[in-house]
């Protein structure tokens, strides 16, 4: 399946390309990821990526970055690294959760490749 993004405005539904055919998404769900970032005085940055799906279970990914003493202190770079790592961790946790949910339904071991 190939998915291509198309620019949309706030008042129109997203349109996706599925194997060459365009389809307007009618029953759309909205999931939100909130990113929280903090940095201490020692140049360590911490980020959390919190997924909100509307379900009672919430997933949180964590990422960290540390300033190399030989580098210039540019806080935005630490924010970017910690956030990227938090989002990667969140994605992995979501795959693990999906695998466990599939196993619960099928009673078979599941291996999901990223």
UniProtKB/TrEMBL annotation:
It holds the Pfam family Rv2632c-like. It comes from the Bacteria. This is DUF1876 domain-containing protein.
